[in-house]
């Protein structure tokens, strides 16, 4: 069923992004200069592709929720027998899904506005924190480290859990926004990470999360049809904020640790793993995390504001070391696939195997950091993003 949803997302994403591209060009909604101090080489390319990504994700979600409530089960069975099995679960997720769509829509609208006329960083931060807080406070299943509620008490433990989760969602949203700086980069990284999260959700029988991730992966694949180098359309903040918020929300909604003997609603056994399975999202998103941390450090060392774009992202630095832009994007895609596959396996490993897996990921970034330090004196050849 999830594979079918990937195809649905792709089928909607390709024409959706194309339509947004055509309309964007006719309206003159092209690549914009951004906020004051933003170092960027402008291109005569529409930055409205995020509309198509949003369309491919939200429309099927709302249509599916409507069908779950209003289409008779016997009619749904003609389309998908699996959907009928999970009908009660889908209905139970309706309220949480609508809150998520509401937050996603607010961020999408803010991104579209920012693409036309740059919003102050403070305003964007308020919008991100508001949307993140809404989905976290509404549903206690949208929280990280809920174990704290037992160890610290329902008051303090809940507060700490909520704060950590909100910070995580905002951080991932910003990370995907930051990494959107070269043709095909954010779309490819998002699709690879989304596919890995979908595999983890399927392993644990979380069909709603896996289904939404399937739509996201398909929509991003449809976007990449038009965004592959040389790009004919950019996703803009209207797309990168949608991508980051969706990945962050769904990583929180996924359960990575399962007790022995756990089964899915349709009776399929769930592989049990250790407590370290909770680090799976950090491993899968290690590359965007490395990018946002490293570019922030570089900008602060140069006396720049960390939220004002400049040519210091990992992709730009790889270009300055001699790679072409296409090669730099391919390298980052490959690194994301390496950490992503490690993350998917993390929850099924024994403790010593998980330690080796984690050490492998850490070592990869240590080697990369040392490599970058050695070459940091060379002049940059990259553009800004």
Description:
With 385 residues, the chain is an all-alpha fold. It has one domain. Helix content is 69%, strand content 0%. It has 17 helices and no strands. The radius of gyration is 21 Å and the shape is globular. The C terminus is likely disordered.
User: What is the alpha-carbon Rg in Å?
Assistant: 21 Å
Unreliably modeled segments: 380-385
Please give the number of β-strands.
0
> What number is the mean pLDDT?
85
Our count of helices gives 17
Helix-strand string:
HHHHHHHHHHHHHHHHH
Count of the separate structural domains: 1
Q: By helix and strand content, what is the structural category?
A: mainly alpha
Helix % is 55-70%
The shape is globular
Strand composition percent: under 5%
Describe the biggest sheet? none
Terminal residue distance: 37 Å
Could you give the topology of this structure?
Elements lengths: L1 H26 L21 H22 L2 H7 L1 H5 L1 H6 L1 H23 L4 H18 L9 H4 L4 H23 L6 H19 L3 H21 L8 H18 L26 H5 L1 H16 L12 H7 L4 H22 L4 H25 L10
Helix pairs in contact: 1-2, 1-11, 2-6, 2-11, 2-12, 6-7, 6-12, 7-9, 9-12, 9-14, 10-11, 10-12, 10-16, 11-12, 15-16, 16-17
């Amino acid at each position: 069923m999830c594979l079918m949803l990937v195809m649905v997302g792709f089928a909607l994403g390709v024409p959706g992004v194309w339509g947004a591209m055509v309309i964007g060009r006719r309206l003159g909604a092209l690549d914009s200069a951004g906020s004051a101090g933003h170092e960027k080489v402008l291109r005569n390319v529409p930055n409205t592709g995020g509309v198509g990504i949003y369309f491919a994700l939200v429309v099927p979600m709302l249509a599916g929720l409507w069908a779950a409530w209003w289409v008779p089960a016997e009619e749904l069975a003609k389309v998908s027998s699996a959907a009928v099995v999970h009908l009660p679960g889908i209905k139970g997720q309706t309220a949480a899904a609508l809150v998520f769509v509401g937050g996603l829509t607010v961020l999408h609208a803010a991104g579209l506005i920012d693409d036309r006329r740059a919003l102050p960083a403070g305003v964007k931060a308020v919008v991100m924190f508001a949307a993140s807080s809404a989905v976290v406070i509404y549903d206690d299943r949208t929280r990280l480290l809920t174990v704290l509620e037992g160890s610290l008490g329902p008051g303090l433990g809940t507060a700490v859990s909520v704060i950590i989760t909100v910070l995580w969602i905002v951080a991932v949203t910003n990370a995907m926004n930051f990494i959107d700086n070269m043709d095909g980069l954010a779309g490819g990284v998002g699709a690879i990470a989304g596919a890995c999260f979908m595999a983890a959700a399927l392993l644990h029988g979380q069909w709603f999360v896996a289904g939404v991730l399937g739509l996201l992966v398909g929509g991003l694949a449809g976007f990449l049809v038009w965004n592959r180098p040389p790009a004919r359309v950019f996703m803009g903040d209207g797309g990168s904020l949608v991508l980051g918020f969706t990945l962050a929300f769904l990583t929180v909604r996924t359960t990575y640790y399962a007790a022995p003997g756990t089964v899915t609603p349709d009776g399929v056994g769930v592989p049990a793993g250790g407590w370290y399975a909770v680090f799976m999202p950090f491993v899968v998103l290690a590359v965007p995390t490395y990018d946002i941390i490293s570019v922030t450090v570089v900008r602060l060392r140069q006396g720049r504001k960390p939220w004002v774009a400049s040519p210091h992202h990992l992709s730009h630095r790889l270009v300055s070391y001699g790679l072409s832009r296409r090669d730099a994007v391919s390298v980052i895609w490959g690194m994301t696939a390496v950490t992503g596959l490690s993350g998917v396996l993390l929850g099924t490993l024994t403790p010593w195997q998980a330690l080796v897996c984690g050490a492998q990921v850490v070592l990869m970034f240590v080697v990369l950091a040392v490599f970058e330090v050695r070459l940091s004196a060379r002049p940059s050849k990259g553009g800004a993003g």
